[in-house]
Amino acid sequence: MPQKLKETDVVIIGVGMTGSIIAKELAAAGYKVVGLERGQPRFTVPDFQSPSVHDELRFDVRKALMQDNTREAVTFRNNSSQTALPIRRWESFLPGTGLGGSHVHWNGQTYRFQANDFELASRTRQRYGAKFLDPDISIQDWGVTYAELEPHYDRFEYLLGTSGKAGNLNGQIQPGGDPFESPRSRGYPTPPMKEHFQGATFRKAATSLGYHPFPQPSSNLSQPYTNPEGVKLNACVFCGFCERYACEHYAKAVPQTIILPVLMRNPNFELRTGCQVQRINLDSTRRKATGVTYIDAAGREFEQPASLVVTTSFALNNVRMLLLSGIGARYDPSTGKGVVGRNYAYQTMSTVASFFGEDFIVNPFMASGASGTLINDFAGDNFDHGGLGFIGGAFIGAVNTNGRPIQYHPVPPGTPAWGKGWKQAVVAHYNHTIMLSLHGSSVSQKQNYLDLDPTYKDAWGQPLLRMTFDFPKNDLRMAEYVTARGVEIGRATGAKQVAGNPRKGPYTITQYQTTHNTGGTIMGSDPKTSVVNKYLQSWSVSNVFVVGASNFPQNASWNPTGTIGALTYWAIDAMKNRYFRNPGPLVSA
Amino acid sequence: MIARGRMTACVRNPPTRILVLGFVATLWSAYAAGGEPVGDATRGAVVAQACAVCHGKLGEGNFPLGYPRLAGQTENYLRKQLEDFVTGRRSNPLMDAITRMYNEQQRADAAAYYASRSAPYAPAGAPADPRLLARGRLLVRTGDEARQLQACANCHGPDGSGEDFAGPCLVGQSATYVVNVLNEWKSGARNNDGGRQMQVVATRLDEKDAAAVAAYAESLGHAK
Amino acid sequence: MTEQITRRSFFKTVGSATAVPVALGTPLLAIADATAVEPGDARAPPAAAAATSAPAPAAADTEAPLYLFFNAEEAAFIEAACERLIPADETGPGALEAWVPNYLDKQLGGAWGAGERLYRSGPWQAGTPSQGYQLPFTPAELFHTALRAINLHFASTGKTFAQGTAEEQDAYLKSLETGGADLDGVPSGVFFDSLLKMTIEGYFSDPVYGGNRNMAAWKMIGFPGAYANYYDAIDRHGVKFERAPMSIGEDRHGHVHVDPNIPASL
């Protein structure tokens, strides 16, 4: 029998970036908040200190900071005709865990989506006609606009101290920034990061072709900064151990360096780590949550009653939590009915490698997680797609973050995989190659979805999440197109050899392609086609909010963290100023 | 010939050859048009005769007066400090005048000379309080979360033995000098580092912690 | 503690073109001090630093790795195979000189070999290539099983893998890579991919794990290692970064203390 604990106002499932911010705001507003985190606490000192943290084998190859997949994995298949099998080793995507979540080991790349992205379905139909899309594509409008989110993007960027150069200030295009960005009310809190040699080379080439390069917005900071919460960050030193690693310098914006010091001091907040939430409990009407059930590190089961439950446990875990709890109708691709698990999307990644002679010194190991230079000329709907046969696009940039040699040793196509030829190619190209990344959008389609696996379980006996996904043909056509543009830029750098590698199907979980898993608890204005309303409140259970990339109806051309941060502050505003004043559905169904 | 042991813990891999001509831009100020001079240790020995009066015959420093040890210091750190004294990015009444008496080649030579030197460490004075040393060791190797202080070793190398192009060697350095310099970083009298790292660090080190780090650094000259 | 073995003398002992068997215990490489003493690591308890006396004359490496996981037969195959995957040549050391087999031995004999970070529940099905590894074998089981089958095969030919010429060895490795043989339940391609992956890891990982000896592989490509503050240096566009590589395991005297048992978790 689970032990029933004293009731609290709010339970937060997952104390990562989103959970930390929500906990801080609600605790500061006077509510009693319990944060349940399945992983362990960790802090910059001693846990993130180098040299031990600069260990490529441990953190990069073996994924030491990631979700414990020996106890809790995900099953995967490309389509419904296959049997999903466990992802036995993380590669394609790397869910985090622990206090601070994957925000501890992210790369710091902090983008906003564009206004067009939030109304993708209606604007695409408007611009290109209803028949332009492949019939299986299921993109939707978000139910919220960029204008509504703008102040929350701003607040999030100032919390992190993001370093960048504005491109559009209240409608005025700014030289040196991204001319395609949607209007910002003010500039970034800190100046852009220094540009490395790769970025400078890319900049020259892109400019020569008439494109608009700008510095990558970076939450590894360009200078010391004190955020509005009074928490201080230091300047990044370009150590080249950013993504998959924790920052020893207090220079990466992670919950530990932006908000946890404030949160942990508030007696209204209680952190419990090593706690695996099993489900959100519902009353007999199934329309009201009574709290959550969790199992602690010693295997003891507890029931934590709460008035409000917020799940902020990463996109995939959010979806699983609703499925395990029976909140919302499960999506069934064969009927098209149901909502939980639909519109799962990802990121469509391609590369271009430019190989130079041995007098062209790149020093790839000198880099930060977000100190690149990129263009948005082929991202989103920034270019005319008429006649091209796809929607979406990619940012293209010299955004290489490292030269860690176990995994980074680029060689030209045709190089043998081992032996003397391989070795000589590695030596000839390691310090003389510029890699371009093409970071492409991902449309949702009816066949791609998430549900519960019928066979495989986690260590607590609960079904694993099952992922059914393959690249929509739309996105593969997009990848071909943007890669060709990337190859042109590569050639314009003067490289001796340029090799484009556009994403091809089938999707495989054996190769890293970002941890930008989106969808499954999508937001929208219609409860028949979305799981949460525009305030991220469940349509079915009004005292459950779901916050994370699982809210995205499809994925755009940029990394999701900035938009998740904006949605977080947007949802907090709704909780504090709408929900708590009048608990119940905020939008009539 | 790689020197080991307690003679030159700072320089794990001292340059056994002169610097390659790859440096075509200055690190710290305007990019030099014709390339930087390559330091030559043999020529530098001649320049160093003038430095010896304060920094010791072998570059071991003068600890009672707080003049820093130069022997075995990382070469690019030495070069940068000399250039910064000349341009005014760093200022010390004695060093400002002295560095300007030499040209860039001579300064580069002096840096190369001292980087390649072994010298015995100053004899141990009164033993430092073991708790102070333990605190210093913790700060150098691990840091302090409550004060938002990262480990010094991140930029200064293992046990502070130097990380060329980043943090200088602290091993066996004069504790008096280290405390003085931390105060300069704190007050802003010195601000010639990249990213304002040292100003941030020095501000977070209170007097006791500064003394702890300094005592630990100096003690490493005598430790095994 | 510098290696004195020159490439030429190394080739005499282990000819890649001539069929000289690499027997266990052959003094290929020698080191003065191989003990694993905890360096000044942020999380390690205070440990006595290795006592260093006056600079030793540069002595030849006199020890070979001590294998705890591989038996003699397995080690002989692994040493020869790794050296074909990453051979010594004028650009840099081969896998042997870099102690790559030692890395494999220690990892396979430790937590990683025992199944760290592997979801191990059944049932098991072959799956599609997109679904990745689906076998029940831990890395240790995979290697022991495959190597047993491989060595049985060579026993039946009367000649060991190590006794083959370089061409013969390469041909055999290619047959493992693409030939689809069943090594007692381990598809040969799966074994080959694991072997190649771990060889590259052993070559380029931090020497704290027992491979990448003397950071020779890092020196070869110019990777500076675990100490990495490039705030100033990043402004020097196009200028080669000339600093010796630095290891997680090195102390302030430059000795690298090996510790292969670092967990794959924080």
What structural keywords apply?
heterotrimer, B: 224 residues, mainly alpha, Cytochrome Bc1 Complex, Chain D, domain 2, 2 domains, two-stranded antiparallel ribbon, 9 helices, 43% helix, 2% strand, globular, disordered N terminus, C: 266 residues, two-stranded antiparallel sheet, 32% helix
Overview of this structure, please?
The complex is a heterotrimer of chains A (589), B (224) and C (266). Chain A is α/β, with parallel strands linked by helices. In chain A, 22% of the residues lie in helices and 18% in strands. In chain A, the strands form five sheets. In chain A, strands 1, 2, 3, 11, 12, 13, 14 and 22 form an eight-stranded mixed beta sheet that branches. A six-stranded antiparallel beta sheet of chain A has the order 8-16-17-18-15-21, with helices on one face. In chain A, strands 5-4-20-19 form a four-stranded mixed beta sheet, with helices on one face. The radius of gyration of chain A is 23 Å and the shape is globular. The model of chain A has no long low-confidence stretch (mean pLDDT 98). Chain B has two domains: 37-119, Cytochrome c-like domain (Cytochrome Bc1 Complex, Chain D, domain 2), CATH 1.10.760; 130-219, Cytochrome c-like domain (Cytochrome Bc1 Complex, Chain D, domain 2). A two-stranded antiparallel ribbon of chain B has the order 1-2. In chain B, helix 2 runs antiparallel to helix 4 (104-115), helix 5 (130-141) crosses helix 9 (207-219) and helix 7 (175-187) crosses helix 8. By secondary structure, chain C is an all-alpha fold. Chain C has one domain. A two-stranded antiparallel ribbon of chain C has the order 1-2. In chain C, a hairpin with a 2-residue loop joins strand 1 and strand 2 (186-187). In chain C, helix 5 (166-178) packs across helix 6. The chains are: A alpha/beta (589), B mainly alpha (224), C mainly alpha (266). At the A-C interface, helix 2, helix 3, strand 5, helix 11 and strand 19 of A face helix 5, helix 6 and helix 7 of C.
